[in-house]
Amino acid sequence: MRVAIFAETFLPKWDGITNTLCRLLEHLESEGHESIMFAPEGAPSSYASTRIHGYPAFNCPWYNDLRLATPLGTATREIEEFQPDVIHVASPLLLGAMGLKKAKQMGVPVVASYHTDVPGYMEHYGFGALRQPSWALFRWLHNQADLNVCPSTHTRRQLEEHGFERVEIWARGVDTDLYSPTRFSFQMRDRMSGGVPDAPLLLYAGRLAVEKRLDLLRPVLDEVPGARLCLVGSGPAEEVLRSIFRGTDTTFMGYLKGEDLAAAYASADVFVFPSESETFGNVVLEAMASGLTAVCAAAGGPLDIVDHGRNGYLFTPGRHAEISSLLEWLIAHPGPSRAIGQRARIHAEANSWTNVMVGLVNRYRELAELSEAERPALAG
Fold it and tell me: What are the residue ranges of helices labelled H in the chain?
């Protein structure tokens, strides 16, 4: 197949969206498909045999870590020369709108993937008045697609409640060779624990941002004596969080990737994830693959991943006392905690990236085989 991808975010920025798109490009290459990508400038000229065309970008005014591409130009020559069988717009906004327009002009089916709860983030950044207009914008963009895919049951229900049409689940996978209990490192644990490796070690990995609700972990350190916290990642709230956690047994590790990140997961005792706005939660699955017990807010994507009391634990969103109670029990009962971590690993092993990507490419193929009159968006 020939697949054209319009991505609002990509390398060098690394997050759940980039991780998923990199896995998609790797799968397309391994299966012999041809692909082309349009992304914000700064990305490499190619990735996994996919040619990447960069577009001028600017920093999002309310989230400086996010760069938005300005579709200056039309991509007409490149995409018409490529002649795609299907166009995939990832988190469509500016570049995605261009992809949708080209698909309509060329009569090519479109898949749109929803990755981030941008309307929900509006509340956290003081733009609550824009929440409903942003839902209207994303609904208008996505409903031009023949198929909309999102990563979890919760997100699918949320989108359908806001009028999104033709929504299916495209879940996420995990690399269980990279993320594994065998990656344990005493040196990494020593760094993460601030030189006290025998203390109970809690881990968070992900963006350091307001919507991740990391402030909930501050009182936990008072309520769980002896516990130490390690925060892996970077983001716009880092300086605020350093102030909040000043004087506590908290280590800021900065951004880690690859084997260093895998070692951090495998060297901790419990993964804590208080975010309430995840469409999936890739880091939760990575932690589980590493044999960790995950303690997550009972909201969003983790509801599809964590089976409470079996392969992890869920707490009422916003309730730091529940987090503390769960952690105290896990620390006091290391045997059951290890058993939960083992079941978490088994769950992760059943969620390979290959299975996830095969399912998406099959849907690409089904849409490409339809005539224009049969395409879902036109029929709708």
Answer: 16-30, 76-82, 94-106, 118-124, 131-142, 153-161, 186-192, 217-223, 238-244, 258-266, 282-289, 302-305, 320-332, 334-349, 353-368, 376-379
